[in-house]
Amino acid sequence: MSLYSRQMLAFMAVAQELHFGRAAQRLHMTQPPLSQQVRLFEERVGVPLLERSTRSVRLTAAGEAMRDAMQRLMDDGDAALATVRRVATGEAGLLRVGFTPTAAYRLVPAALGAYRERRPDVQLSMTEADTGHLRALLAQDRLDVAVMRHTADSQAEGLHLEPVDTEPLVVALPLRHAWSSRRSIPIEELAAVPLIGFARSTSAYFHTLLASLFARNGLAPNYVMESVLPTLLALVEAGIGAAVVPGSVSELRPGGVKYLPLKARHTLRSTLYLAYRKDGANPAVPALCDALRHASRYKSSTS
Length: 303
What we know:
D-Maltodextrin-Binding Protein, domain 2, two-stranded antiparallel sheet
């Protein structure tokens, strides 16, 4: 593919070779059409670019300036072509990534680290938000890919959704809590103590998940306050109550909080979903999806 006119290429060949015969060979053409193309180029420019004699070809001062300017233009054009081709293959460009706060504790950092090694020239734009906001940004084509929770209306919005990571729920306790030396906490005992829950308005997924967890075990939680991560952990550390959180939160390891397994007859897991528009066209998306799947702990047999 050439970005340049035949006349420009003819002039540049002669300007570099300073010989019509060698320039014609280089362009795989005969001398007469080459000379005609060069004359047409000079006419377009409006000033003589070459001094011709029977023995030699020389550039005029204007010709030297034109040669140098055209070389810079061709170098820039070649660089632009290389960049465009790399963007088309997903090796460069911009990738807009959204993620829920809990995805930032393990999955997203692990996946992005691997992705950056494979695609160092892709610029990443990161947005942290709740699932509802991420879903809206995907629908508005303001994100290319998101790691979020599943919602009932996501599929209707033309999104590809697949479970990409799953983890158990654990109990977060103040470090000096009477239960802190235990190996696990039975859900029956947990339901009887003050708990910090997830706010429905901003953490609808976890609010619903925990309601289902307690209901399946025939229990009702004793919520004394509701909040969002990471503020919820600060409330636990302050001794206001215990909390049930996704296991990856324990990787934060704040000094005043201890995490213990939750023991229950009927358990539930927290699941993260990979989401992107079915009509999305960003070629950088597949490699990030692969990185997320590779970093995932999800197994198809889990529920």
